[in-house]
Amino acid sequence: MNPxxxxxRVLLADDHPLMREALIAAIEDEPDMQVxxxxxxxxxxxxxxxxxxxxxxxxDLFMPGMDGLHAIADIRTRxxxxxxxxxxxxxxxxxxxxxxxxxxxxxxxKDSQRTELLVAIREVGLGKSHLPPEVALKLANGVRRHGAxxxxxxxxxxxxxxxxxxLIGQGASNRDIANKLSLTEGTVRTHVHNILxxxxxxxxxxxxxxxxxEGLVNPTxxx
Length: 223
Prior knowledge:
This protein has a five-stranded parallel sheet with strand order 2-1-3-4-5, sandwiched between helices. By secondary structure, the chain is an alpha/beta fold. The protein has two domains: 8-130, Rossmann fold (3-Layer(aba) Sandwich); 150-221, Arc Repressor Mutant, subunit A (Orthogonal Bundle). It has helices spanning 17-28, 42-52, 68-78, 93-102, 114-125, 133-146, 159-169, 174-181, 185-199, 204-213; strands spanning 8-13, 33-39, 56-59, 84-88, 106-109. It is built from ten helices and five strands. The model has no long low-confidence stretch (mean pLDDT 89).
């Protein structure tokens, strides 16, 4: 491994032994990742998250005892900086919305390619969002069908921030937004930071949810 390359410390939470073994093998094969712990249920995940200080937590939603959603909420209550990637077999709209509301950064299906999972872990490790197109569509449809709690701004967004928020809701990256609005990526990052602060949101995924909830984008506009 390149000495300058940071090692990602990954905590896994999945109740299926074969899945855990497969995940450990896939992750440990990467030079920039190591598995620091493997939980078999949500309660173990909460405990290990506190003691092991992982960079990324890969969490199944369906486990005995405390399920993934409750574990995510507990972990993020204790540590709002926790970076969590959901890895599950469910693409149910309600689960996607609930996970994003709970503050997850990524959501990947268990039948995804190994390469997608590894990309998702690295992006979440960097604090970036990772929502594949089919998951983003479920998020949009879930908000449209069932609604979701909307954030109340501590102060109004500027016109430019509204523009940026709408593009975030469409799934645009900072680079895409910069090109679209003729801004630098640094300026876009500042706008995103201000938007999250004013709306009291934890991350970009929650901003996407808010943009959909407020009607700034249509479900068909999300990537």
